[in-house]
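Pair request: fold both.
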Amino acid sequence: MKWSSKCIGLALGGGGARGFAHIGVIRALKHEKIPIDIIVGTSSGALIGGAYASGTIPEELERKIDDYLNSEEYKSSAIRTIEKSHEGERGPLTQKIQGFLQNKFLLLQAMFKPGVLSTKEFQSMIDFFIPDILIQDTTIPFRAVTTDLISGEQIICSKGSLRDAVMASSAVPGAIEPLERRGLLLSDGGIISMVPVNATRSEGADIVIAVNIARGIFSDEKLETAQEILDRAPDITSYYLTNYEITAADVVIRPDVGNLHWSDFSRAGNLIAEGEKAALDSMPDIRKATPLFRKLFPKRKNRKR
């Protein structure tokens, strides 16, 4: 459904922990008084976008992240276990051995169930950031992009539970169990669209500001096993598909997210600042893109959805 009242859309890309950069981007846009009429998010973009769209200001989001990462719930969670397994790959020999064993254990688990984390285990994180409301009731119109694993189609969640929509959009394949809803098996929106520019357009945005938090294409990791090559191949595919889609955006903001793994939550403390810096650096392009629409529609009024 396209809304004629929409003008500026914010497309927030996926990338796990790298999604913290979205908070800085939103803070900069808010500070510079750039109006956002609709937010569309994929994966962590859906988490941050959904929280902001429902009324949580950037400063409160930053505080919530600190609280969550320092909570016993997070420290004992399966998410932290996944993170530690990747931390071990970068550490000294003893840590590498521990990381190797944890990785093997996680892979073994994944062979016997649809995800290392069940929806129940991941739900507490979603609930911590996302209020229990309907998508239709967000302060700013919001959409979450997911993928139906049965039909292979992109699903844009526009109504129903906000928590369910964010949960489905964030369900990283293999790591988080897909969500079953109304005959659909919903998983990470990034399978089809890592930065949902086209979905933002289809939902009525005339001007799209996209935020790409994907890692760069270069990797210095040794590719010595079949599993490592299998993991590397989809990263390359995703990189080029994402670059193709973001050409349709009016402005693309690219925070410096380094090469962080999606699960490196506790290593992402500076990403909010990087997001804000990237957005401020892009402000001349944003202001160049937005006044034209204001001139064409100087009397645009907010309409009821």
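--- second member of the pair ---
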Amino acid sequence: MRLILIGFGVVGQGLARILRDKRDDLKQRYNFTSEIVAVITGSRGTLYRPDGLDIAQLLSAIEAGSLSHYPKHDGLIRDWDALRIIREGEADVIVEASPTNLETAQPALDYCVAALESGKHIVTANKGPIALAYHDLMVRAKAAGRQVLYEATVMAGTPALRLGVEALAGCTVSEVRGILNGTTNYILTQMENGMDYAEALAQAQQLGYAETDPAGDVEGWDAAAKVIILALTFFGKKLTLNDMDVRGITGITVADVREAQAAGERWKLMASVTADGGRVQPVRIPMSDPLAGVASATNAITFVTDLMGEVTLVGAGAGQTETGFALLADLLALHRG
């Protein structure tokens, strides 16, 4: 399987390391082999080599600052732009792991369209194209006889979408709800341990859970984008950020947390979606709810079904290796198909 990686930050490098370290195991267990034939970044260069790029040398080059440090090889092309590589590159799959844009989904959306037009599958960790252009991409994929897979967009490597679509096939899902943002869950957990909001946020930033500008997480927009994807996947319903009641955790105080504790409850930033719509808001949930025990940066999702009742899945919702694994899981699904 020949891969073009778009984005070579934390997630792209995570997938590359997995493909390098588990190459023999993947070959032996699944008869799966792969080559990264191109890497496209926004500011650190592009590389394309039809015969494949050396992963160790790719990682060394990016650690040195840019792909310009990748050594010379026969057939190596450095001057093609992203769309030319996608359209003309000899590859089977585009792996989209560039930063998410929830306003326009660009430039990732143009990359996805070009991939399908040139007969390539898409595996993405980028929420933008799925949240904003799901139906268009699926129509294009069907016409091209290709697939668009996006497990990594909701809970990183924890198989939330695969559980609902495959393992619970035959059930009618009436609601999906969960803790879909690890940053806010970490902050609320630390506030239960006595920190105030500002101190917990600063610690989350120091640990890499929160960005320098944490608004997307703490104001609920990251979780809202995931609600849009869940609505499309399980209810065929198209939502926008403006359609939803979206509230974050910035107004929660230590006093609020203590009041909930005294009542046997916990604050969680809950994302939920039904056939009628979706919302993201901080709520107090009883300790008897399985989601109440989900602490730190861990994520969880509950499917409410007719045949199985409530089914809850708990796992990592972020991380280099974890998100890289989600991309690998989708590549293996393509391979099996």
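Observation on the second member. DSSP finds 14 helices and twelve strands in the chain.
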